[in-house]
Design a protein that fits this description.
Elements lengths: L17 E9 L6 E6 L7 E2 L2 E3 L6 H13 L1 E14 L4 E13 L4 H5 L4 E5 H9 L3 H13 L7 E4 L6 E3 L12
Parallel strand pairs: 1-6, 5-8
Antiparallel strand pairs: 1-2, 1-4, 2-3, 2-7, 5-6, 8-9
Helix pairs in contact: 3-4
Length: 178
C-alpha cells in the first residue's frame, strides 16, 4: 500500500531538486546498529526513514517528524551527515543522526500501512539498501566516516560514487576533493 499525502506540498531548491530530510537512527554511541523501515511501495524492501521538507519547515524538523511517522521512534537529534544528491530522482536529502531513546509500540505508519521497523548491523543494512536504494547506502558510509571527520555543509552526489562538495563555497555544487 502506498502512503498518500493529499495535503503535501513538495518543496524544491533553486536548482530544481526536491528537498528532503532523513535520519540514520542509532541506539548506542558506537553506532553499530541502525534502524530501517519497510518501504511503503515495496514492503519486502528496507529503507532509511525520511521524506519531503514541508513549507516553512527546517530540514532537522522534517527529519524528526519523518522518523516519528515512519519508524515510531523518538530521540535526540545529533550531527548532520550532509546533503545527499540524487540526480536520477532530482532530490537532495539532508541526513542527520538520531540517538533513539524511545520506540513506540504503535505509530502512524504501523497502523495506516502496516510499516515495520528493524535494527540492522551496518553491514546488514548496507546489503539491504544495495538492492534498491544505493543512494541511502551512501548515508551509512558517511555515518562510518563521520566519526572521525567533520563534514559540515557537505553535499554527497549519490547517483554516482560519492564525491564530497562544499555547498557554501560552490552554488553549483561542483566536486572537490575531501
Amino acid at each position: 500500500m502506498v502512503k498518500e499525502k493529499p495535503n503535501s506540498t513538495r518543496i524544491y531548491d533553486k536548482d530544481g531538486f526536491r528537498r528532503r530530510a532523513a535520519c540514520i537512527c542509532v541506539r548506542a554511541e558506537n553506532e553499530a546498529e541502525v534502524l530501517l523501515v519497510t518501504s511503503s511501495r515495496r514492503p519486502e524492501l528496507w529503507i532509511v526513514p525520511g521524506g519531503g521538507v514541508e513549507p516553512e519547515e527546517e530540514p532537522s524538523v522534517t527529519a524528526v517528524r519523518e522518523v516519528l511517522e515512519e519508524a515510531g521512534v523518538i530521540g535526540s537529534l545529533g550531527r548532520c551527515l550532509g546533503v545527499f544528491e540524487n540526480n536520477d530522482h532530482m532530490h537532495r536529502t539532508e541526513v542527520f543522526v538520531m540517538n533513539v531513546t524511545k520506540e513506540l509500540e504503535e505509530w502512524e505508519d504501523s497502523r495506516s500501512i502496516g510499516r515495520k521497523r528493524q535494527w540492522f548491523t551496518i553491514d546488514d543494512a548496507l546489503s539491504r539498501l544495495a538492492l534498491h536504494k544505493p543512494t541511502q547506502q551512501h548515508y551509512l558510509m558517511q555515518l562510518q566516516h563521520s566519526k572521525t571527520r567533520d563534514n559540515t555543509n557537505r553535499v554527497v552526489n549519490a547517483t554516482h560514487p560519492p564525491k564530497l562538495t562544499n555547498v557554501a563555497s560552490s552554488p553549483a555544487a561542483s566536486p572537490t576533493t575531501a
